[in-house]
Design a protein that fits this description.
alpha/beta, TIM Barrel, three-stranded antiparallel sheet, 18% strand, globular, binds pyridoxal-5'-phosphate, binds iron/sulfur cluster
Length: 370
């Protein structure tokens, strides 16, 4: 299937590669979903009902990565097209904000859960709304949408009086969709705080809108180093030549890129897909940093994968691919209890004089410690 030919047949390359054209021409809301449905020849009536609760928009570029008309089987379609299940039967463990981010928010837009680092929610706006997003609750909250001058001052004052915070993770929403002046102002304000050593930007732009990574943007980011970009690839089909070129532009500005994925049922919950995702990330010099167990956020239950399955796959990964390809597999525990590593240890028993290990090949090995 070639969705670009079906939906945007006369758009020249230059326009297709213009990120503002992509944002303007997103399919969104009821009209967009109906248009997509009739193009794919599918009934979207159940999916439409979801839009009363959760918004929807997707870039032409990202939608065009769909290979199959069967939305619920396609790894891109499944991530970005609303499913009736989002408002279906829910679980007692699900909540709009299981990480209690609001509870840990000393200033609006700032989450301070760990001693040395904070998350700053710079905007509620995204290029495409991922159906598994753990901040679905912020999509419709206009107060999150723009971090005004005055709110930014409150953030800055808070950080100035908490000098043990050394890292700010700018997230959202997608901070790289803010206007350039706004990104510059935000990063400069953070940089002017002497105790802030590191900036990190969480963005899905390289995946859903790689043309946003312009030379201008890279120049702006370069001025704010040390800065890390953390992006969000979930499936090998997302690593296109456009995405690869965008990543390379960031890297050429002297900015390292790492990736966090979410383990998602029907998208990447099998060994070969994960393995290929991590190896292809390494091949474009993006370090797989985290694989997240899907948070128990309301409206995402159809994506949850049993924890045991994830642990088994990640155990098998160790030793089967280079260590650079193996991310930390973690769960963000509910009630804001923090991230927990989901490792099964190779260390079976640790005494004073000897230790017993199960090797990556499942051999039992005893080693002397003195
Ligand atoms: C994940 C997270 C961070 C960053 O943690 P790292 O382990 O450094 O990636 C910071 N604050 C909050 C609230 C988080 O959820
Ligand atoms: S880009 Fe990030 S914040 Fe935006 S919808 Fe996707 S996961 Fe959520």
């Amino acid at each position: 299937m070639n969705l670009r030919k079906l939906l945007w047949p006369d758009i020249p390359e230059s326009q297709w590669n213009d990120w503002q054209w992509q944002v303007k021409n997103r399919l969104q809301g009821k009209d967009g979903l109906e248009r997509l449905g009739s193009t794919l020849g599918i009934d979207v009536s159940r999916r439409l009902r979801v839009l009363n609760r959760y918004k929807w928009a997707a870039t032409p570029y990202y939608l065009n990565l769909m290979a199959s008309r069967d939305v619920s089987l396609d790894p891109v379609g499944r991530q970005v097209i609303p499913s009736g299940k989002e408002t279906g039967v829910t679980s007692s463990s699900a909540s709009p904000d299981p990480l209690k981010e609001r509870h840990y928010s000393p200033v609006r837009g700032l989450i301070h859960r760990y001693r040395d680092r904070v998350v700053l929610l710079a905007t509620g706006f995204c290029a495409s709304y991922c159906r598994h997003c753990n901040r679905k609750r912020t999509w419709n909250r206009p107060e999150c949408v723009i971090l005004s001058e005055e709110k930014l001052k409150l953030v800055r004052d808070y950080l100035l009086s908490n000098p043990h915070v050394r890292e700010v993770l700018v997230s959202g929403g997608d901070p790289l969709l803010l206007p350039m002046e706004h990104i510059a102002r935000l990063l400069e304000a953070l940089r002017s705080i002497p105790s802030i050593e590191i900036l990190r930007i969480g963005t899905r732009v390289p995946v859903v809108l790689p043309m946003r990574i312009t030379e201008d943007l890279c120049r702006l980011l370069k001025r704010q180093r040390p800065i890390w970009i953390n992006t969000h690839f979930n499936h090998p089909v997302e690593i296109t030549k456009e995405a690869k070129a965008a990543i390379e532009r960031i890297q050429l500005a002297g900015i390292p890129v790492s990736n966090q994925s979410v383990l998602l049922r029907g998208i990447n919950d099998n060994y070969d897909t994960l393995r290929s995702l991590f190896c292809r990330l390494q091949a474009i010099m993006v370090r797989p940093y985290y694989l997240f167990q899907c948070d128990h956020v309301s409206g995402t239950r159809h994506f949850w994968v049993p924890m045991k399955k994830g642990i088994r796959m990640m155990d098998r990964m160790w030793g089967d691919v280079g260590g650079m390809c193996v991310p930390n597999f973690v769960a963000d525990l509910s009630e804001g209890s923090g991230k927990a590593r989901l490792l099964s240890s190779h260390l079976i028993e640790l005494g004073r004089k000897e230790a017993i290990f199960a090797t990556f090949e499942k051999k039992i090995v005893k080693i002397k410690l003195e």
